[in-house]
Write a structure and sequence with these properties.
binds NADP nicotinamide-adenine-dinucleotide phosphate, 23% strand, 38% helix, 341 residues, 6-stranded mixed β-sheet, alpha/beta, oxidoreductase, Rossmann fold, HDH_short, Homoserine dehydrogenase
């Protein structure tokens, strides 16, 4: 049996959910991969906890001040890092300061925050290639909605011609509430904030930047598109008025904030903006806090995935899906005996 040590940097809603889920799945990892997966370190911005024998759930409420930072993770001797800190795509930090040394040291790294991937994606991929580390990013690429896995596995070998993604749950909720309940943008936003699923400062979502970051990550990591943020034109939903909503409704159209990627003779063009979709379009029927992606390929035609889950559990589960991809590649799965007919 092989022992796999995991550390988590960034211990807020998603980091904690990832820790809890990992601990409840330890028997599964043992049975499926023959791996004793231990959580050996966790840290937030000021405090953390480490134990080479493995932390248990009851330890995780008593973090110790000062146990944090890239060096703290380094000394935990983790085989795998899960990074779940804040996202800042203008600086890449603070995730970059954990992800970069982790990949350079050859440590398989699962990234949930988007900032470092947008800011330094090319550099991080090159680092991983050089060191042989696996870099997995499902949590940052719309999380519970499969995006990268569709490109890397389900549509393998096909040429992607076009992608349309409704990649931000908050903006889908807001436009849906405006369409179905006749609310103004500010009224819908107030409800989302009261429900705890829109930030006090919602501009990263409402102005389209979160969608742009996810689209860019999907394009660069899934298709090697080589885009930078400046290549994208980005429009949000903050100026949508009740009058515009009424006009769309009367024309049988449904507005969605869509990240669009087109492959024009091998060159990718990307944008984020409002698309008024005919009501017959499956993406027009996406309600509430859901996300969706439509991928059009040369040989498999149109593929659509839609989904959501309760946060932060579903984002944690997307990161642990990546953990299983790593275990499957690094540790030989244990053969499961077939039931006799
Ligand atoms: N929440 C979701 O549903 C969701 C969905 C998809 C993706 N994401 C992404 O997942 C990431 C985490 O989201 P969240 O909701 O868990 O955020 P959160 O609750 O604000 O947690 C962020 C965590 O990062 C820690 N942190 C800040 N600076 C740090 C540093 N220098 N070193 C170590 N830790 C540091 C914070 O520590 P302190 O507590 O000490 O400040 C906190 O523990 C974000 O990048 C977000 O975009 C979230």
């Amino acid at each position: 049996m092989v022992t796999i040590a995991v550390a988590i940097a960034g211990f807020g809603g998603v980091g904690r959910a990832a820790a809890d889920l990992l601990l409840t799945r330890r028997d599964r990892y043992l049975q499926v991969y023959g791996a004793d997966v231990r959580l050996v370190a966790v840290c937030g911005s000021r405090s953390g906890l480490a134990d080479p024998d493995g932390l248990e759930a009851e330890h995780l409420d008593a973090l110790e001040e000062g146990l944090t930072g890239p060096k703290f993770i380094e000394t935990s001797a983790a085989d795998i890092l899960i990074e779940a800190g804040p996202s800042d795509f203008r600086t890449g930090g603070p995730g970059l300061s954990y992800i970069q040394p982790s990949l350079a040291a050859g440590r398989d790294t699962i990234v949930i925050s988007k900032g470092a991937l947008v800011h330094s994606g090319v550099k991080l991929r090159a680092l991983a290639e050089t060191s042989g580390a696996m870099l997995k990013i499902s949590g940052a690429a719309a999380a519970a909605l499969p995006t990268i896995d569709l490109l890397e596995h389900s549509l393998k070998g096909c040429q992607v011609l076009e992608i349309e993604g409704i990649l931000n749950a908050t903006t889908n909720y807001l436009l849906d509430a405006m369409m179905s309940q006749g609310l103004s943008f500010n009224e819908a936003l107030g409800r989302a904030q009261a429900g705890g699923f829109a930030e006090a400062d919602p501009r990263n979502d409402t102005e389209g930047w979160d969608t742009a970051a996810k689209l860019l990550i999907i394009a660069n990591f899934g298709l090697d598109a080589g885009l930078v943020m400046e290549d994208l034109s980005v429009e949000g939903i903050q100026s949508v008025t009740k009058e515009r909503i009424t006009a769309w409704r009367s024309e049988g159209l449904v507005p969605k904030l869509v990240g669009h990627l087109a492959n024009v003779k091998g060159k990718f063009r990307a944008s984020v903006g409002i698309r008024a979709l005919p009501i017959s379009d499956p993406l027009a029927r996406l309600r509430g806090k859901n996300k969706a992606i439509r991928i059009i390929t040369d040989a498999m035609g149109e593929t659509i995935a839609m989904g959501s889950g309760t946060e932060p559990l579903s984002t944690a589960a997307a990161a642990l899906k990546d953990l299983e991809h790593i275990l499957a590649a690094r540790v030989r799965p244990v053969p499961v005996p077939r039931a006799s007919p």
